[in-house]
Write a structure and sequence with these properties.
Length: about 350
């Protein structure tokens, strides 16, 4: 063989053998998926008969302390600046403010008459309270202060039927809807003028209200019955279009966070129903012991918190298995429950 050709073939063969012998390239290890930081904001539970609130660690589910409030704290809501959680103390005519991130006491606002339930309008211009014992609804103007903090100025006191119970508003902040528990009625109030638009008869002992994301339908829980009533809000006054069979003592709502499903606690039946708002049907029902009342859904979308009103406990439910996974001892007659780390309210 010609020496030059032999040399060429030998070099090619050497290169091929070297390539074959070389180890295959090892891909770089995939980056580990980022883990979400553990929640740090406390879970807050209102103990209505103890005039205080429980702070619960969101990781260990241990009660870490209690903070005094006024008498009969029933419901709570985040302020527009997200710097405070307002606790409404019905029998003390006051509001207690705590830090939503630490649970520390901030201040007390007095002179708020009989605040049983409370709600901010979505545009955060109006603060609304239901005077459960005194049969009126108060509408306040929210006024941020230049130096920080805020003031509440009463715009109008609206007389209503017996026992105003729960409040909700449409997404455009035009109308407040309030259930009148012992009148078996519902009232709609124009927020711009603070005047009633209509009052209609409803089922037995109406409690919480929930609006569909498009504001077309209102879901009303009947604590004196076993139904959730559905009202068409595209007409005035609202028109009853359906009664959804849930279970005895249908009481409080909490959105699942997917803009389609909402939970309702059935206080007498010791259960929770999941309602599909599009089909207006119950698609799940699972046990919740001890008189389930108010609820919150953690930001993971997998965990539901519910106060067990008659058992002095906070019950934690796994939404994938629909099973109670733990209960936490709290005070007497636990009512409102809330944490900053939750799914959207609507």
């Amino acid at each position: 063989m010609h020496l030059a050709r032999f040399a060429l073939l030998s070099s090619v063969a050497f290169a091929l053998n070297a390539f074959a012998a070389a180890p295959a390239a090892v891909p770089a290890p995939a980056a580990a998926p980022a883990t979400k930081p553990a929640p740090t904001a406390p879970i807050i539970v209102l103990n209505s008969l103890d005039a205080n609130l429980s702070l619960i660690d969101p990781v260990t589910y241990q009660e870490t302390g209690r903070i005094p409030t006024g008498k009969e704290p029933h419901h709570l809501y985040l302020t527009p600046d997200e710097k405070s959680v307002i606790v409404a103390n019905a029998s003390s005519d006051s509001l207690t403010l705590v830090d939503p991130r630490t649970g520390k006491f901030q201040r007390t606002i007095t002179g708020i008459v009989d605040p049983y339930h409370l709600r901010f309008s979505p545009d955060m211009k109006w603060f609304i309270t239901a005077a459960n014992r005194l049969d009126h609804i108060d509408i306040y103007r929210w006024q941020p202060l230049p130096t920080g903090g805020f003031d509440l100025k009463l715009a109008k006191r609206v007389p209503a039927g017996k026992t105003p119970s729960h409040i909700n508003t449409d997404s455009k902040s035009t109308t407040a809807y309030v259930s009148l528990q012992d009148s078996d009625q519902m009232i709609a109030i124009d927020l711009a003028t603070q005047t009633p638009k209509w009052t209609i008869p409803v089922g037995k002992m109406p409690a919480d209200l929930f609006l569909s994301p498009d504001d077309k339908f209102l879901f009303l829980a009947l604590t004196g019955d076993s139904f959730v009533e559905v009202y068409d809000l595209t007409v005035s006054p609202a028109k009853l279009v359906k009664r959804i069979k849930t279970a005895a003592g249908a009481h409080a709502f909490r959105a699942q966070g997917d803009k389609r499903h909402v939970f309702v606690s059935n206080r007498v039946a010791n259960s929770i129903s999941r309602i599909d708002m599009q089909t207006q049907t119950v698609v799940d029902t699972f046990a919740a012991p001890g008189g389930p009342d108010c609820m919150d859904v953690l930001a993971d979308g997998k965990t539901l918190l519910v106060t067990s009103r008659w058992a002095k406990k906070l019950t934690v439910i796994d939404l994938e298995t629909k099973k109670v996974v733990r209960q936490v001892n709290v005070g007497r007659s636990p009512h409102g429950v809330w944490t900053l780390d939750h799914v959207p309210l609507r």
